[in-house]
């Protein structure tokens, strides 16, 4: 019964997750069950829905999901249930469920790409699975072997990929959302003893090329997204809800996202829920070098984005002769100064939802930074990086980051 | 059909909420409906459950709720639905619901007290209703008139109070949990266009007198609960889930709660999810004055607790000749120093769940602060404040803070 959802990438799925527990520390004799994708059961829908075109699927105020989802429940004593692929539908939660009160929740976002060669690919799903483990343990949800999560993600796309992302939709994608929530129906601030993992696949609009580029408004002085000692590096719900107020305010003023600054120095951290990059030339006195700059991971303020990581790797491998790749704290003041001095070359946001999205303007406390767009698109380095990534995602370039889904026969 | 759920307190329900929108700014002609408790509909359970005794109700890992709950849904276009009192049961949420991903959620906690005079009372429910509005708008959920929320809370207790908190259980309480969640089934980091308010009533264990007092462990240096510019003052889920990891660690070490410190100075903020108080004598060089000290509200790091506020008010009214009431930033270093110099008199945590709970020990980076307990209870001021509060809650003292629920005839 099990479909052949196999990792066919030449890249071995990482077998280590630094400093994170892969299991919950139970011994072999206990009744505790680990998450095990090989046990996945299949209950297919008897009522497959019509597959909408991409535009109409993204026009409404509800996300259109595919026919199926995968779920697995967890209990602190018995461990992980047998994962199930089953018809997509509502979840039943008690009003006292932990997730509804204490934000015991985390998620991942990745896309499945229908390649120009007809194949269906995920992009570095091992990175998402490992980060989900990191997020889960940060928010006191259970541990699991991330390879099992990766296999479940592949299994969902093996079933719903062929019909929902058909071979004639080359260059299109679906959005995958693994989510883990605390379900224990008990009030009181405590780590949940029960949880539910679910994975959905859905349509999502293309957001990587807004007309005129992405326009950013820096965060208000009295609002901070994440802080040292907090959880800005984890993909937990608690990072998102509190950010909406500033985003709404920025949108009212005609901006797309908030550029989140940190501390009295005004360090640049994230653009909306994406990582933020600038390309500038250092002052002549410092050598006039071209640099691709983004915030560092070591203070744990920002998300260790898969797109961010890939952009940095590609830039180091393929642009080393043209620019330096720099991960360091840098301030909005430095960006302003570079702009005034004509040294700010390009800027973009990078993440799964926004992919590589050119930034055309930043408003900061009365000052406007304009960043030139070329023919309505980003500058040459932004475009190069974006095209390289796209080629890997859609199979124009065979690369270990593109993991082919072995699709279930229809 | 509507029961007489009427505020019979002599205290007028506050008609102003500073700087907060009471409605969503729609004009009278729009189809938008405000939350309106007078429209409440009643669907009674046909299967009332046996009411357990308090001890067995609190023994398990699930919260036992009463027979009914109140729900009202909200849509950005049509506004608030007619609120419904209906049988308690599970909620149905789409896997893409905002609350499950982005922590668009907030809640309140208050208790209903069966008085020694047989009456059923809430304690300052207007304060909870107003804070819920503050939390809701902070987390980009809808506004409402807090008086309507207060009326709905009273209505639930009017129906379930007589059977679930019967007149022969004098001195007992039920726990009320109004909750508001974002339900819009759309992925993407945005303010939800749909939401659900629900109010439950349940059993909750008594936590105000743990054997030997509450033992606190200060927060790890690399973990911060809330920060200036954050949302520590709002009762949103995002404040709780991320705190669980440190709490679990503290419990493994034999402590009950975390004393959350802030900044390199180590300012004392909250004890677990409660406000934190110390009573000390200032050094002789500073007059040797007796002070009740707690963290201030102005930097928005801590919750504006109803118990905190009431303790401060009672202390100012009734203990003014004995001690000074001080709201200011103070550090763990000052507490340590007071302890070493024999000037630390008492300490307690204050909140709805823990009521006024004596603190007997604080562990801070290798040092132990011991705070004397008297006959296993808190010191004289802790006990005085607690007893005054209890007398108001349970009707031994007639006070405007005690709001009598006019119970529905059985």
Automatic annotation (TrEMBL), chains A, B:
Gene3D superfamilies reported in the protein's UniProt record: 3.30.470.10, D-amino Acid Aminotransferase, subunit A, domain 2 (3.20.10.10)
Cofactor: pyridoxal 5'-phosphate
Ranges of compositional bias, category Low complexity: 1-17
Keyword Hydrolase found: no
Keywords: Aminotransferase, Pyridoxal phosphate, Transferase
Positions of region (Disordered): 1-26
Record bears the keyword Transferase: yes
Domain of life: Eukaryota
Signal peptide range: none
One Pfam match: Aminotran_4
UniProt cross-references to PANTHER family, sorted A to Z: BRANCHED-CHAIN-AMINO-ACID AMINOTRANSFERASE, SUBGROUP IIII AMINOTRANSFERASE
Family the UniProt entry places it in: Belongs to the class-IV pyridoxal-phosphate-dependent aminotransferase family.
Protein name in UniProt: Branched-chain-amino-acid aminotransferase
Source species of the chain: Phialemonium thermophilum
